[in-house]
Amino acid sequence: MDPHIQGFRRSRGCTSRIRYSCPRFGQKQTTWILTAFIPKMHKILVSDYDGTITDKNFYSLLAERYVPADTPDYFAQYREGRMSHFEAMAAYFAFAPTEEQRLEELLAASQADPDLGVSAALLRRSGWELWVVSAGSSWYVERVLSRAGVAATIYSNPGRMENGRGLVLEKLDPSSPYYSASLGVDKSAVVLHALHIAETVAFAGDGPPDLQPALLVRPGLRFARGFLAEELRARGEVFQPFSRWSEIARELA
């Protein structure tokens, strides 16, 4: 699989603790070689992170607490088509503090579902594989999931903290089957891959990048809140509303 697909599993001879990588093949070729030998999984939940697993978006907390008042509204520029979603996120992340205590305060303020660990374990016992897909950064997604004891595969933009530059957001390698020039991570490609290898696929999300991937799954397995719920309702599309991520786990289990 792509070296920027992050998860808490190993692939013998090709990986470190949480990164999939196989240098003997090209990335796209590796993905399909592996797929050919993977037995069909029973069920996969593909879930967005910011605003879905958490109540608050990491970027919005940065905007509220650390971005100067005279800074341009990057997401307004994104909605107007003047910059990509990835560029808007990267611009906000540049204001992230690098002090450990302030970062911990931000992670706590994002308010991950308090029942996240228990709910993820319930899904696993019920035969569900959890894939978390985020147009944010694996830098904070990994930390929150790991601390909650959640076993998941993470598809997200890599990132690193640098003094004076905040959280530096990076794109996947363009050769990755999940690369998106505008988002960094192509969520629809992740869902399509899940549909290729699993008998049942559910999706949960809340934002604009979640619309197309949500439409790929069956209405009864399409969970939405926030913008995504409003947009699906406006289109006359059936979906399952939720207010907390743990509700999804209970519904699927």
Written account of the structure:
- By secondary structure, this protein is of the alpha/beta class.
- The chain has a domain of 128 residues.
- The chain contains eleven helices and eleven strands.
- The protein has a seven-stranded mixed beta sheet, sandwiched between helices.
- A hairpin with a 3-residue loop joins β7 and β8.
- It starts with a strand and ends with a helix.
What is the secondary structure topology, with strand pairs?
Layout: E1 5-7, H1 27-37, E2 41-47, H2 58-65, H3 74-79, H4 85-93, H5 100-109, H6 116-125, E3 128-137, H7 138-147, E4 153-157, E5 159-162, E6 166-169, E7 179-180, E8 184-185, H8 187-197, E9 198-205, H9 211-215, E10 222-224, H10 226-234, E11 240-241, H11 245-252
Parallel strand pairs: 2-3, 2-9, 3-4, 9-10, 10-11
Antiparallel strand pairs: 1-4, 5-6, 7-8
Helix pairs in contact: 6-11
Summarize the structure in short.
The protein is α/β, with parallel strands linked by helices and 253 residues long. It contains 11 helices and 11 strands. Strands 1-4-3-2-9-10-11 form a 7-stranded mixed β-sheet, with helices on both faces. Strands 5-6 form a two-stranded antiparallel ribbon.
Assembly form of the protein: single chain
Distance between the termini: 28 Å
What series of H and E elements makes up the topology? EHEHHHHHEHEEEEEHEHEHEH
Category by helix and strand content = alpha/beta
Query: Sheet bearing the most strands, described?
Result: 7 strands, mixed
Radius of gyration: 18 Å
Q: Count of helical segments?
A: 11
Spatial strand sequence of the major β-sheet: 1-4-3-2-9-10-11
Rough outline: globular
Helix content estimate: 25-40%
Return residue spans where pLDDT drops below 50 for at least 5 consecutive residues.
Answer: 1-36
What is the residue-mean pLDDT, rounded to a whole number? 87
As a percent range, the share of strand residues is 15-25%
Number of beta-strand segments: 11
